[in-house]
């Protein structure tokens, strides 16, 4: 929409308030023009002094324009003699007292008329100023209201966040205690949804005693992962859906912290070449929030071991590779660590090791051979879209411990 422009004596004004001020200044200037003989140097000098002294209060640049005009005329007007107009006015005053009185009355009327117009413009200006002040007050109240609403939302979010964080910590503390209690379940139970097959016969596997109580709480339990001196000390779940435990805890409750879970395609009974565990990168360090500290080799040197038990057997793993990756499109031909679960042969295994070694942020000196059991921990990495931070370890055989 085109903005309205106001013009007074060649000057442009964009707002009604500025326009009102300009009209007031013009009224004063017109009055001074009527009362002053611009051909008389003495009259110009007095007017110049009055303008410089600030006797007339101008609100716009029209006042400065008028002052510059008067000073310029003063420079050009001769000092000697009086103008013909002044002489004629003096003669007229001497010969006609009545004319003088009439002229006085006319000047007075003109002055009163000009003063009236100035008062009207001043009143209009005050109205505009008052309206603008009311608008500003309304804006201030709206801003205050909006800030209050944002503050309430932030406090609400913080309260909910604190509640979930407290509930998560309490839940896993209780699970850790339950893990240490004597088993109240039978020592032998089928795996949740999985059976170990030997020579064509289905045979149940013995569940470790420390996980029997937990398995009674949730049949989706598949193991426990722990890294000393970190928050990582959690049960690991597994279902046929890799999405469910992104926002549910072990008690099947909604929880934005989610739960550490194993990829649905991994099999702890056969077992798979590589167990892949996923967990959220929580900003408070919970779940796999501390995993990216492995970007510093000094952290790795203090925490080179990951403990991961399945519900059937214990395991100690030494870290081999630490790298950043991402979730790629299906059409992209690139190494996708999250698809490396079962190696079809030694060549495929060695190729995957080479790919991960090339990606690794530093050399740990640890390597793996075909037949070794691997463990991969994966979490989000916010340095790029769909980024992932990955730690890969190999299981230490009984003879190596």
Summarize the structure.
By secondary structure, the chain is an alpha+beta fold. Helices cover 43% and strands 16% of the residues.
Largest sheet: 8 strands, mixed
The level of helicity is 40-55%
What is the 3D shape? elongated
Uncertain stretches of 5 or more adjacent residues: 81-87, 92-97, 187-201
Structural class: alpha+beta
Overall pLDDT score: 83
Order of helices and strands: EEHHHHHEEHEEEEHEEHEE
- Gyration radius (Cα, Å) is 45 Å
Q: Please give the alpha-carbon distance between the first and last residues.
A: 80 Å
* Number of DSSP strand runs: 12
Q: What is the percentage of strand-forming residues?
A: 15-25%
Continuous helix count? 8
Going across the biggest sheet, name each strand in turn. 6-5-9-10-12-11-8-7
Description:
By secondary structure, the chain is of the alpha+beta class. Helices cover 43% and strands 16% of the residues. The chain has eight helices and twelve strands. The strands form three sheets. Strands 6-5-9-10-12-11-8-7 form an eight-stranded mixed β-sheet. The chain has a two-stranded antiparallel ribbon with strand order 1-2. The protein has a two-stranded antiparallel sheet with strand order 3-4. The radius of gyration is 45 Å and the shape is elongated.
Write the layout of secondary structure elements.
Blueprint: E1 6-8, E2 11-13, H1 16-35, H2 41-52, H3 61-76, H4 84-95, H5 97-180, E3 196-198, E4 201-203, H6 209-217, E5 221-226, E6 233-237, E7 261-262, E8 274-278, H7 297-302, E9 305-310, E10 316-326, H8 346-359, E11 374-381, E12 387-395
Helix pairs in contact: 1-3, 1-5, 2-3, 5-6
